[in-house]
Amino acid sequence: MADQISLSSAVRTNLGGLQQTAKLGARTDERLGSGKAVNSPIDGAAEFFASQALSSRASGLSAAKDGVDQAISTVQAATNGLDAISNLAEQARGLATAARNTSDPDQRAALQDQFNEVTNQINGIAQDSGFGGTNLVQASPDDLEIVLNEDGSSTDTVQGIDSSAAGLGFTVADFSTDAGVEAALGQASAAVDTVRTSSATLASNSSALQTRINFTEDLANTLESGAAKLTEADLNEEAANRLSLQTRQALGNNELGLAAQSERAILGLFA
Q1: DSSP characters for the chain?
Q2: Which of 3, 21, 129, 146 has its CA 20 to 30 A from that of 271?
Q3: Is the model more confident about 111 or about 236?
Q4: Cα separation of 110 and 116, whole Å?
Q5: For the packed helices 235-269 and 9-34, what is the interaxial angle rounded to 10 degrees?
Q6: Based on the number of CB atoms within 10 Å of its own CB, is 62 exposed (0-12), middle (13-18) or buried (19 or more)?
Q7: What is d(CA 9, CA 152) in angstroms, rounded to the nearest whole number?
Q8: d(CA 142, CA 127)
Q9: Are 18 and 249 in contact (CB under 8 A)?
């Protein structure tokens, strides 16, 4: 068995006190460094796990918010497409009106070709108005499914709207007769009205989704704040504790020194 040094009661008591002071000092330093009074379940199981649950939900809401933000971009891409399609539908109406006001076959033929070209451009824009693989205004449009909260229990759907030329009611124009011109004019006028209605619908969806983003962000911030309150440290109190522990450590060192001097004095009596 290795030799052991026997410590006096006074020295042992002082060493124990210094060890406890050092342990408290380390805990105080951790709290000052992290800003938290509860850094693990050991510091407070109830507070630690409740804080984790709130932070986890806040993280899930932030992820859902990102998804809603992407959905708004998808709706905005469709809205931009509808704006361009609206302009083209107005052009088509103007061409049909011009054809109504002339009886010259050559002029009508030229206007007919322009009218049909405009409807072809409508198809191109509708096809190109997607975002992230989702297109709300193409022929056979997609529907946009949106998850609104952290566990998927709240969802929303933005319905796609066929805004291709055929979806808007356009057919191949024939300006060789007055009836054909009137039919094309009616199609163009109806398309203008339809596109305006579709744009208003998508704008309403976008506004609702933006409101949801604001709500989700506020809720996530509230949850994070609540999580912090469960674990955060009072830095002023911890700073005061650190000063007190430094004083206690200095006094403990002095007491240990005095105890050691006392033992040396006693040994001196036997010298």
Answers
A1: ----PPPPHHHHHHHHHHHHHHHHHHHHHHHHHHSBS-SSGGG-HHHHHHHHHHHHHHHHHHHHHHHHHHHHHHHHHHHHHHHHHHHHHHHHHHHHHHHHT---HHHHHHHHHHHHHHHHHHHHHHHT--BTTB-SSSSSPPPEEEE-STTS-SEEEEPP---STTTTT-----TTSHHHHHHHHHHHHHHHHHHHHHHHHHHHHHHHHHHHHHHHHHHHHHHHHHHHHHHB--HHHHHHHHHHHHHHHHHHHHHHHHHHHHHHHHHHHT-
A2: 3
A3: 111
A4: 10
A5: 160
A6: middle
A7: 65
A8: 11
A9: yes
* Total residues belonging to the chain: 271
- What's the rounded Cα separation, in Å, for the pair 54 and 51? 5
* pTM for this entry: 0.73
SS (H, E, C) 180-206: HHHHHHHHHHHHHHHHHHHHHHHHHHH
Q: How far is CA 205 from CA 74, 171, 210, in A?
A: 11, 30, 9
For residue 242, what pLDDT band results from cuts at 50, 70 and 90?
Answer: low
42 CB neighbour count, 10 Å cutoff:
8
Q: What is the pLDDT of residues 194-216, one digit of tens each?
A: 999 999 999 999 999 999 999 99
Please write down the HEC assignment for all residues of 94-131. Answer: HHHHHHHCCCCHHHHHHHHHHHHHHHHHHHHHHHCCCE
